[in-house]
């Protein structure tokens, strides 16, 4: 792999599992210096030890002060900030009537407010470096699923926020989103619990794609690397689906 991100300083949230973890490994291999965010101290510390120029900070992205600390850590340790990759996400399963208000609030806090919090502190530094933000959204921004009201609402709002920030901060900063379909991660299997037969739901999701398979975290990391690199220097305000064609099936 060419060092497309050589010496670029990147904050990655949701870095301890699934797509966020794959993105962390891909960016590291491309030469980036990383600040990794996650709630799992064991997995985060292990990843920190495996990757070069990497610092893991345990914490909850719903906490405004924690987001400020992520940015301060990047600046104090590496001197600048070039890329923010936002991957933290939870499902908040349950229909509107039965969903506890606390679950609704936690889901929007993790999937939406955390984007605002980290962007708030990161953007002044990204303006200096000419950097960019990449939001990991979902096809749930465009397609609804039973028992996912908080998830669908938060993902649609994250795409709207991305587009607004791209307008606000262009041409100094590029801001984009990726919208994955069914990717083989713990989140997908947890999502399947909303259906009567979870294993069949996952199998049906794979069969519903035009490519007849689930995505992998590695598939997502390849698109993420492209979008944060100079290869995508004329792309901003875009929500790119990466879904095996399921929205067109």
TrEMBL record:
Cited InterPro entries: NAD(P)-bd_dom_sf, Sc_DH/Rdtase_CS, SDR_fam
A Pfam family the protein falls into: adh_short_C2
Keyword Oxidoreductase belongs to the record: yes
Record's keyword terms, sorted: Oxidoreductase
GO molecular function annotations of the record: oxidoreductase activity
Family: Belongs to the short-chain dehydrogenases/reductases (SDR) family.
Name assigned to this protein: Oxidoreductase
Organism: Maribacter cobaltidurans
Lineage of producing organism: Bacteria, Pseudomonadati, Bacteroidota, Flavobacteriia, Flavobacteriales
